[in-house]
Amino acid sequence: MNFTLEIWRQFDTGEEGRYEDFTVEGIDPEASFLEMLDQLNERLTEEERRTVAFDSDCREGICGTCSLVINDTPHGPRQVTSCQTYMRDFEDGATIRVEPFRSTTFPVIRDLVTDRSALDRVIQAGGYTGATTGPQPEPNSMPVAPEVQEKAMDAAICIGCGACVAACPNGAAMLFTGAKVTHLNLLPQGQAERGNRANSMVEQMDEEGFGGCTNFGECSRVCPQEISLDVIGMLNREYRKARLSRDPKDPPTMLAQ
Amino acid sequence: MRLPDAKIPPGPLEHKWQAWIDQHRLVGPNNRSGKNVIVIGTGLAGASAAASLAAQGFGVKSFCFQDSPRRAHSIAAQGGINASKDYANEGDSVRRLFADTMKGGDFRSREANVWRLAELSENIIDQAVAQGVPFNREYGGQLATRSFGGVLVQRTFYSRGQTGQQLLLGAYSALEQQVAAGNAVVHSRHEMLDVVIVDGEARGVIVRNLVTGEIERHAADAVILASGGYTNVYYLSTNAMGSNVTAAWRAHRHGALMANPSYTQIHPTCIPQSGEYQSKLTLMSESLRNDGRVWVPRKGGDDRPPAEIPEDERFYYLEERYPSFGNLAPRDIASRAAKVVCDDGLGVGPTGRGVYLDFRDAIAQRGRDVVEVRYGNLFEMYENITGENPYETPMMIYPAPHYAMGGLWVDYELQTTIPGLFAIGEANFSDHGANRLGASALMQALADGYFIVPHTVAHHLTADRESVSTTDSAFDTAQDAVESHITRLMDVGGTKAAQVFHRELGNVMLDYCGMARNAPGLEKALTEIGEIRENFWSDLRVDPGRDEFNQSLEYANRVSDFLELGELMCLDALRREESCGGHFREEYETDDGEALRDDERFAKVTAWEYQGDDGDPVPHDEQLSFENVKLATRSYK
């Protein structure tokens, strides 16, 4: 298969970027999108041209490193991670536009590589149960119904790729944060800090410059883990409850409200 | 040099670890923040160690090459984690988990280390649940378990097919909690390029900031390597693209011995390779063998669709050869059996290097719903990659390089031969002998990180040490060496990308130092690797610009170390004139094709000492003694 690629090139965070066109030929339809880029880079090296920078690591859809916008959609056409997108999903001869995840909270480092450390800082603000290493209670002393575990797991499987942010017209990270809050809210181990957790994670989102949710739903539509918008509802409820119980005179001011 | 004492505490096996804990010295809570520890890697071992040491109050600096600590490759572990809790009331116990692990490793690991691992297994589950890891539950809300290869009990805990992800996110969030508390700092997109040794002790590292290209110096009182395994030496493996041996190898070059480097695990259930362009192989969890049946057509060249091949023309070779374990034979045995049937021309798929993993009977017996609950995400993943639906047609699988049992030699305290330098998780050699059992990697990484190094490193930190500044001349020397290696890579000025050489190396390693090895092949590999190395250093091209983001430089740097490691693996495989676990020498097999050990000569660990670029590595042997298990020919029949 042959393709024309319009790839975003940007040397540095501060530099201005532009699209550069490349053609790739003789690509096997079973090659993944990233393997197609590997082949392009191998050729660019032979031609003594600078290779295209892009992030990837596990290449099996679980680490959340790969982060391309393919034809205007984060991760591409099939709602799977960029690495799980295959060339058989495209028409032979097609022109494909490749960009980094777009968000002011994700500055471009080079070409298709962005800095998503803001998401780590949101977790630092409260995405844990607070248990430190040491003797812990016997797990079967706190039964968790399988349906509840399944629901918690549906949220816990977030891979932290940030596609939700890149897809959101407001640049919100509500799906990401909602997933963590939902996961821990549903389990007995997450109860003690639930209010504080929601509160400080939301504050951190605001500080990082993520936008608020206005129910476009784009985040869930591109999420490779198919995390449901319900997690945002859970986050909003928890946040409001936390703010009200904390200080009734200082009502919730989250951007998302 | 002589191999140092392994420091195994005296006394009965059951009490060794508690005896060690009881005697170790302590740093008072007020003095801990002044003691600093560097942790390289943020996988299960690294993140759990960093979080635990920071929670005790030590100053922790954690480094990872990924853009976030949450992305380390432990995230991809699928099937589960072992613990001898015996929830299934089958008579499981610490002793049984210990014995299974010793036998699974073909009696090539240390009894004391393995016992401790089994002993700590239960605490890990408790710890993970307390962090909010959503393990699968039974109907009544109790933790669910399933079986894995090489055992006859159900001791594997799991979160769907994403157990590694959930455990890693638990450890990651515990680490981030310590970052928020100010006890730990995480440097992501930083790669360790050298360890700094002052007065014979590891006192710091040289790292490259992968965003700016800046070479940085960091000093500490101890350094922990949790940098993972090295099966990317085979080019195609189930490891992540960035998984590499550089941190461990640079430590090796400074005198840390590398133990049993040829012990690598080729995992039986992976999606077969489809083309030359392929960049990695994807694992399909071993848990699938709980319900999937492995077979090939009895007749070579039978190209009928699998559904049309009648029962009596299917060769369920694992069930026939290993009736008591059947499809749950251990990994080394299942992999080799797949290779044998494919070598015999019975393999399926376009390349003839594939076997079926069939869920037809499981779906008929248990129903599609049950199969979906157990393996749904794995089926989806398979369909995504291959375009085929495993509910309707069998999966096609083939073995792929997956895990390194070998690694840096460590004593009972998980300290390498360089004082102050510890190695944990897959980066060390300690617990799995010549073959790792399924669901034991997560267990070992977390035992090391949560429960062992927090004690042994703390103990190391009790000694009075002068503080070391990064202006010490040892840092100058180390930085100079790192800079000149980078200069050398930048200056080759050839025409080919590093992956070209990496691919060539991988082919040689897979052909001659993979599932089957023999002396002439290993000799040949050594010659060929020498040639690839020469070509690498004369025809490599990396992108210009060392003081900036430069992925081709990162990659070339890693490949330069893999080329050296590959030689050492072949030397080790050549010297070990026996077959054991994943190390199968064709000259040493039983009449029915099983591994033939030579306990007289090789019931020992081989730890290799680096001798400079031109010197031949020197082997040192650690004799293994077996007082609590009977050395027996491993049988899964």
Give the structural class of chain A.
Answer: alpha+beta
**What's the main sheet of chain A like?**
5 strands, mixed
Summed over residues and divided by their number, the pLDDT of chain A gives a mean of 95
Q: Going by CATH, what is the homologous superfamily of the domain at 269-401 in chain B?
A: Succinate dehydrogenase/fumarate reductase flavoprotein, catalytic domain
Low-confidence stretches of chain B: none
Number of folding domains of chain A?
2
Measure the end-to-end span of chain B: 43 Å
Order of the strands making up the biggest sheet of chain A: 2-1-5-3-4
Name the helicity range of chain A: 25-40%
CATH topology of the domain at 269-401 in chain B: Flavocytochrome C3, Chain A, domain 1
- Terminus-to-terminus distance of chain A: 48 Å
Total number of helical segments of chain B? Answer: 16
What multimeric state do the chains show?
Answer: heterodimer
